Structure formats: structure tokens, C-alpha cells
Amino acid sequence: MAALAYRLHIFDGQYEVLAGRCHVVVLDLSLPGYETRLAQQLQALTRDAVAANEPMDAPRLEVRDAGTGAKVLDWTAV
Fold first, then answer.
1. CB of 10 within 8 A of CB of 46?
2. What pLDDT score does 41 carry?
3. Which is nearest to 76 in space by CA: 49, 52, 41, 47?
4. Distance CA 37, CA 61 (A)
5. H/E element holding 36?
6. Distance between CA atoms of 11 and 38, rounded to whole angstroms?
7. Which of 34, 33, 37, 9 is nearest to 22 (CA)?
8. Largest Cα–Cα distance of the chain, in whole Å?
9. DSSP characters for 39-66?
């Protein structure tokens, strides 16, 4: 599978935070190591959300296809 563009949506549980911002990454989800990149993105977006006074008790990412918006992966750092 080739690297594709994905849009990241960050949530605190069920509530989407930083909804007005666009976060796009290019990933190949078939290669090992994409988890590290998602962990880095989750950490950075959590920092941004806390700085914006958003609650962040249970941060998670939804990885969506940048073109269609279809959810590809629901991801939480372990």
C-alpha cells in the first residue's frame, strides 16, 4: 500500500476538540512504525488542545481518508 493522505480528528472521549483546525498527515498504514507517528501526532495535538483550554481526559484520534472523510482507524496510544 502506498502512503496516502489522512485527516486526523482528535477527541476527548466522544467530544471532538480542535474541530475548526485541519490536521493532515501522509502515512502508509501497511508498514510498521505508523503507530509511532500517530503517537507523536496525538501527543502534539493533545498539547495544542490543552493550550486551547480543551478538556483532555481520554485523548484519541480518528484517522479519516482525506478525500472521502471515511473513518479508517480509531486510535488511542497505549
1. yes
2. 94
3. 41
4. 12
5. helix 34-51
6. 14
7. 9
8. 38
9. HHHHHHHHHHHHHTT---SSEEEEEEET
Burial (CB count <10 Å: 0-12, 13-18, 19+), residue 75: middle
Total residues found in the chain within this entry: 78
User: Position 14: which residue type?
Assistant: Q
Tell me which residue of 45, 44, 6, 4 sits closest to 24, measured CA to CA. Answer: 6
Q: What is the pTM of this model?
A: 0.88
Q: Which of 34, 35, 59, 65 is nearest to 45 (CA)?
A: 59
Residue 1 scores a pLDDT above 90: no
